[in-house]
Structure formats: structure tokens, C-alpha cells
Design brief:
Elements (H helix, E strand, L loop, with lengths): L1 E7 L2 E8 L9 E4 L7 H9 L14 E4 L4 E6 L6 E2 L4 E7 L2 E6 L4 E6 L6 E2 L4 E5 L1
Antiparallel strand pairs: 1-2, 2-3, 4-11, 5-7, 5-10, 6-9, 7-8, 9-11
Amino acid sequence: MRRFIINVNGKSYDVSVEEVDAAASAPVATPAPAAAPAAPAAQPKAEAPAAPSVSASVAEGTKIEAPMPGTILEVRVHVGDTVKEGDVLFVLEAMKLENELAAPCAGTVASVNTAKGTVVNAGDILGVIG
């Protein structure tokens, strides 16, 4: 068993890792009893409200994907809105910069799959223009 100190968001955690043979599925990491604060359990709860899905499914059409990981600062369209090519649909904050995500084509907004405050990854579908 090997011990490591792992820093996550400025907090240090003392973890023990057990090495297993190649036939096992994956190594198992368990936190040491003295370093198991309640903060890691609270962190996913803090992100859960920030990730609501405005549309239950992805509609057919041109998908607008997040070009990089970040946080949605603004959603400037709603389902049913008519947009022109180049209209700003979303504002994404990434690395302290605000990025305006524009419509790649003209059409009607078929779905909006994100909301203000949502943390997104590169490739996540933010909306669809039909």
C-alpha cells in the first residue's frame, strides 16, 4: 500500500492506494480516515444545480457544440427563436475569457441543452438549429 497527498482545489487529501495485479480491473484509492472531510461530498452537490438540462433531448439539425471546457455565462436564445448565421447564441467563459458562440447557419432554434451557470466540456451539445 502506498500513501499519497493529493491537492484538489486547494485542499490536501491523504490517500492510500493499494497496488493490485494486472488481472484485477483497476487500482482502488481509499481516503485515509484522518483526511476524509465532508468537502468532497459537498462539491458535486454544488455543481448539480449548475447543470440543468433545458431540453430533454437533442433535436435534429445543426448542433452547436462547446469548443472548449468552461462555464455558460449567458444563453441568448430560446427554443423557437429564428437566428441568422453569425448571431451570438451563447457566451462561454473559459480561462477567464468570454467567448461568444455564434450560429453556424440560419434557422430556428430547435433545442437549448444548457443554461446559465452550467459547466460544460469540449464537445458538449449546447443547442440545435433546425
